[in-house]
Amino acid sequence: MTHAEATDAEQEPTTGYGWCSWHDGMSRTIRLIQVQEQGSGPGGSLFACAPCRETHHLVPLADLPDE
Ligand SMILES: [Zn+2]
Which helix (H) or strand (E) holds 46? Predict the structure, then answer.
């Protein structure tokens, strides 16, 4: 009996269901994105879904390197 490496728990732990601020809709692949203040917006943090993260090259806050 071989114990296969279970990979069904390999989902991104911080992915959740929520509102994507980029396409203005709900998604189940929401992740927290750090938005740098640009002076023209409220700044702070927003959430983006997986497709929008690829389209806009967004980096999840949890994936940013520690400084
Ligand atoms: Zn989106």
Answer: strand 45-48
Q: Would you state the structure tokens that stand for residue 10, as one six-digit string?
A: 């390999």
Question: What residues make up the domain containing 27?
Answer: 14-47
**Torsions phi, psi for 31 (to 5 deg):** -135, 150
Say how many Å lie between the CA of residue 22 and the centre of ligand 1. Answer: 5
Distance 54 CA to ligand 1 centre (A): 10
Tell me the percentage of the chain whose pLDDT exceeds 70: 64
3-state secondary structure 28-51: EEEEEEECCCCCCCCCCEEEECHH
Structurally, the chain folds into a number of domains equal to 1
